[in-house]
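Recall from the previous chapter that SMILES is a line notation for molecules. Here it describes zinc ion.
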Amino acid sequence: MRSRLLQVTRSRLAFLGAGLGLHLQSDPALAKSTSGAGGSSVQRPQFRFGVIADIQFCDCDDASNFAGTEVRHYRGTLSQADAAAEHWNRSGVDFVVQLGDLIDGQNAGGYGAGLDFAEPQSESALARVVQALSKCSAPMYHAIGNHELYNFDWRGLVKRLQQPQAGAANGRDWHVASAERLRQSPEECTAHKFYFSWRPAEGWTFVMLNAYAVSIEQDKSSDGFRQACQLLSEHNPKCFEMIMNGVTQGDFFTGLERDEDMRFVPFNGGLGEGQLQWLREELRAAKSRGDRIVVMSHVPMYAEAATLRTLVYDSEAALEILHRDGGGNVVAVLAGHLHRGGYAIDEGGIHHVTLQSPLNFENCFGYIDAYADRLELVGCGEQGIPSRTMRFATAGSHLGQEPATRTYDTARAYVRYTFRATLPVTTMYRYQSILGRLRRTPPRENEVPTPAPMAPLGGRLPPPPPAHTRHRRQRSSEAARSSAARTDLALLMPPPPPK
Ligand SMILES: [Zn+2]
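With both inputs in hand, we obtain:
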């Protein structure tokens, strides 16, 4: 509590300094925020919190994911965790939200580089990430990701990420589970301890969900395991057969045709009815208090902000609850899991942010300032999480939403960072020259390429205009260039990768 008070005080001092025209630190991201992204005068946020997702550290060489669609810089994420902690300290965050997948599944020794380890690295890898993040003195809230469950069981996660515990004197104020439910039945440790809520400030409720309450990555005697088996066998029988035969790596999407079945793969998970009922009650209680509500989950729940392949199993039910029981008060859903990230606002005005991963982007962390009428996401650096203003809907109308203008920038950074280390120089040169040519040359009449569906790949998209309209449409040269470049990027961008 004392460290939190110190944090809040530091945060307030930083803003006081900014108000007086002083810069208490040289952090450009902070300077940007305090100069007032929402206007010329400095407005103080009610609180500020750090964000990061999918650190996925492993002490192994860079490698591609299973599908071969992205290169992951496993060692580099440790220094990013370190830099993130420093950044949050400098920025005076009041707390941090870590959205899951702290270390990679390979650490457990079962696949990939892990097969070459003399013994599992789970313990030492997590210890290094924990040490890096511990440099941040603010309280930290952790989501459960699939890679947590590849390395540890539920009890092991409480032991390592719920702090302080009796006898612990490391000064951490960390939360991965409901302290109340842990206290009520300390002898049992199941998935249902790992969702909880807290109120970071008057007028705000934060809800942390466990997207793997229904998952095959847990004790086979649990309800969540049985439910996951049932869902996989119903919606993705070939994948279920693979798992039953002990095949843990492969193309889990073979034979899937229906969009609504794509999410039923082992690296996603579900909330389950017990957690959904808890969510209903939490939202109703928060709404009756008039709180703004922020929901967090490792796995996204809105396809337009992610892909159909990276959604929680019961995303429709969850979204319905957010709208029906928390409608007007739920302002944002924060997630990770899909490393290239995404953003969309849904029909009910809820902002869905999928954070990019440090495995694929440099300087991939940031913070969010909470105001009465908006959240200001401030990314760090050009490549990482795009900064974004998310205004809240009021009385059923959306207050001037800012378009997702940085989707293209993010895609470009993704391609650059992913390909840089691996492509031969000649290939890189060809890629750059093609891109450069497309940027310079507007498409000819009747050859206007259709803009690629960058952010919501696989999601619901408005139908393209009829061909004759498209051909006759007059475009500014800038729009045409942008469209051409995006089409080129869409060809280079891989399909959504399995996590
Ligand atoms: Zn994940």
